[in-house]
């Protein structure tokens, strides 16, 4: 049982989140926040990416803890620094543009 969201699955706790403009940011945030201890929103290089601060605001409005970071590599480093339990995971989610940047970070 997950101690964060109450489901039978184990939640990652550490999320790196980014989406492009025109997507359902608030709906996705409401889904992700229950499984996240902390969400890092990086500034993406994609031309359709909203400012990272806008996503941070949406995560916070959904009840989450979030911080803006300057890059995907900075978000991954911040998430790793937050590891405090064996088996901690980072979920990179929201956009393939974000995942692509994470894969080359």
Mean pLDDT across the residues is: 89
- The number of domains is 1
Q: CATH homologous superfamily name?
A: Mur ligase, C-terminal domain
Q: Fraction of residues in helices?
A: 25-40%
Count all strands and give the number: 4
Query: Could you say what the CATH topology is called?
Result: Protein-Tyrosine Phosphatase, Chain A
- Number of DSSP helices? 4
Distance between the termini: 32 Å
Largest sheet: 4 strands, parallel
For the record, the CATH architecture stands as: Alpha-Beta Complex
Molecular shape: globular
Task: Describe this protein's structure.
With 105 residues, the chain is α/β, with parallel strands linked by helices. It has a single domain (13-104), classed as Protein-Tyrosine Phosphatase, Chain A. Helices cover 35% and strands 20% of the residues. The protein has four helices and four strands. A four-stranded parallel sheet has the order 3-2-1-4, with helices on both faces. β1, α1 (25-32) and β2 (36-42) form a beta-alpha-beta unit. The mean pLDDT is 89.
Structure in a nutshell:
The chain has helices at residues 25-32, 52-61, 72-81, 96-104, and strands at residues 13-17, 36-42, 66-69, 89-93.
Write the layout of secondary structure elements.
Blueprint: E1 13-17, H1 25-32, E2 36-42, H2 52-61, E3 66-69, H3 72-81, E4 89-93, H4 96-104
């Amino acid at each position: 049982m997950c101690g964060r969201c109450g489901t039978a699955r184990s939640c990652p706790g550490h999320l790196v989140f980014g989406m492009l403009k025109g997507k359902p940011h608030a709906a996705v945030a409401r889904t992700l926040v229950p499984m996240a201890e902390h969400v890092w929103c990086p500034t993406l290089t994609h031309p359709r990416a909203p400012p990272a601060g806008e996503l941070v605001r949406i995560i916070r409005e959904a009840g989450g803890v979030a911080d803006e970071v300057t890059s995907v590599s900075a978000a991954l480093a911040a998430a790793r620094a937050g590891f405090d339990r064996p088996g901690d995971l980072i979920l990179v989610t929201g956009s393939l543009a974000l995942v692509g940047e994470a894969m080359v970070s």
